[in-house]
Amino acid sequence: MGLPDGHASMLPDDLSTEGCAPAPRSRPRSLAEAARRARTGAPAGERALPVSPVLAGLLPDGLRRGSTVGVVGPGGRSLAFSLIATATATGSWAAVVGDPDFGLAAAAEAGVALARLAVVDLSGPTASRQWGAVVAALVAGLDLVLVAPRRQVRATDARRLSARARERGSVLIRIGDASWPDRPDLKLALTGATWEGPEDGYGRLRCRRAEVVATGRGRNARERRALLLLPDARGVPSLP
Amino acid sequence: MNPASYPGPRTLVVRCPDWSLTVLGVAPGDPALVLAAGRVAAASEAARAVGVARGQRRREAQGRCPEVAVLERDEAAEARRFEPVVAALEDVTPWVEVSRPGACAFGVRGPLRLLGGEAALLDRTAEVVGAALDVAVGPTHPGCRLGVADGRFTADLAARAAGAGIAGSLVVPVGGSPAFLAPQPVGVLGRPDLADVLVRLGLATLGAFAALSAADVVGRFGAEGRAAHRLAAGLDGTPPQVRRPPPDLAVAVDLDPPVDRIDRVAFAARALAEQFHDDLRGRGLACTRVVVEAETEHDERLARCWRDEGVLGASALADRVRWQLEGWLHGPPAVRPTAGLVRLTLLPDEVVPATGHQAGFWGGASAADERAARALARVVGLLGEGSVRLPEWRGGRDPVDQLVLVPLTGGVGEVGRVDAPPSDAPPWPGVLPPPSPAAVHADPVPAELLDDRGRPVRVDGRGVLSAAPVALRVDGRGVHVAAWAGPWPVDERWWDPRRHRRRVRLQVVADDGVARLLVLEAGCWRVAATYD
Predict the structure, then answer these.
(1) Do A200 and B483 touch (CB under 8 A)?
(2) pLDDT confidence of residue B427
(3) Given A213, A239, B315, B443, which is the most exposed site by the fewest CB atoms within 10 A?
(4) Residue B340 · residue B297 · CB < 8 Å
(5) Distance from the B80 Cα atom to the nearest Cα atom in chain A, whole angstroms
């Protein structure tokens, strides 16, 4: 999983030749082809993916297409579920790369549409060498890509993946931020998380009360905070 | 004749029943099924008799027929073995159209003049196909079915309805198509979404559907519905304004050096099919019949006509070209070219105005689904089969059992049809209530749970803890237990000594704020999941 030491960069140099778009030729031969070439990423009207109203205080503009988001520390996966739930329920596809522990039942409870979720297994013998190409292919075709690299990501790969996400209008969500060389556009973390419910053998886990802190670059530079139940007793992220 | 009421040319359809099974050497009496993309693509007569049907999942089919032999589909062999049959039919007529390996058709007007009558034509066709099958498959083949009718769709149904026997045949008399079609179920139109709507509207047969006014059908179902309505009424399904294509729509690729290996030429064929498709699309046309032509170093010219009831999309076209090349390059010596291929040409033989694909009209694939399917197929190509998996609801008492991941095997078609957890699923007794843990460990981590005197915490036969847990050690790191809930014992399959599982679950919140699900099984505590 992740990248072995001393590997060459794993992203193909000419990203446009793979997957979706044909290689650009000198002149478009038809109107349809010209239109196809001109189309990169999302239509202008959809600059952001929708998020649950619960997260409105943290992401007032929704999940901006082309951005990278880091979810760090304990509670990272729950944050990731809450980020992708509304978008997958409204037609976007999501993929989880290299996270064998991803809790599908919890994702379903949080509102993630499992019918539009793919899990990519990186435990194969050649998988670690192709990590960059795999993530690049997913970023090209899916709106949401969740990555949990197990080793340090090279600076060139990180830069290219961010550029690819920007070009394609996808959102790259990093589960855990330690293995990335650069800062994401937006970083979400839990502070002061307390679980409620169990008491000396009685009861059961009911909810986690936590404050979510959002920091980032550019328009996200100002820190935002919100108190959330993540998850509540039904497994759904909600306001206390 | 008024083109709007043209029933289509009188056509003979040759069908080899259960071709994908025949190719794999299955006799009709053996229970067997062929899998494609994880679902049943074909089932033998014996398997169908006990309820195995196309589209079922492997487990469902095995549940109905436990002794069924499960075979993997071999499309290359299907194409390879069928090519000599089509080649043999060229003795009867030069214009054979292949729709898929195992089925082909030709217009009867030409050969009828030669042979004198439809009965003679049927005899001659059966004889030629039978002889070719003897060579291609061996003498145990189940024979072929022949159908003659006005229009290809009706002829195909006639061939399906033709009786068993080495060469069963059914002739629908001229003008008899509507009467023959009327009692057929709407499912035979090959448009499951449309059929579903029609059945719910109470229109279960083609006769009932055909009785609707054409204007109403177009108003509700668009161009696709109109084509289906024409077929149901026994008319030619393709709109009558079929144009002869201008010659510059043919696309060709020169192969230098000459190729005789299927993988290399198939690669060129895919690019060619995409270019062909894009060129037609750019002119607002779609192709229903295409001629695949190859030239060899020795100036041999091979050509074969393929058609589809619908219009041929880029990937469907690429499949057909690949099948044809498979038939030529790997077929028996009689049809195999003597030298490598130097040129591959695709000629549109029949084009219709493209009516546009209404994405998602009946809940079909959206553009995002198609884009995702392509990207996922590419990842499968990079990492191998089984690397991309989709969640499927199974139910169970533990988070790890409730949803399982099934490999994406078939490519694009499977995407978007994943079984999501049913909202009205019956409750499992003993299931842990939500919230579920956000991280379910693929390999549960061994842990030590200790009481206030440092002794391991145990659970007795009645499911009672030996003492209150105070400390937890995971991966050599110790944390204090802040709160805990449980234990909840589970005793599964106590009637089966081999699969009997007895375990105890405990939720533990540590003082670092992390909640974990611990499972005690065979005397050992493990962290099964983390409430991440």
Answers:
(1) yes
(2) 59
(3) B443
(4) yes
(5) 30
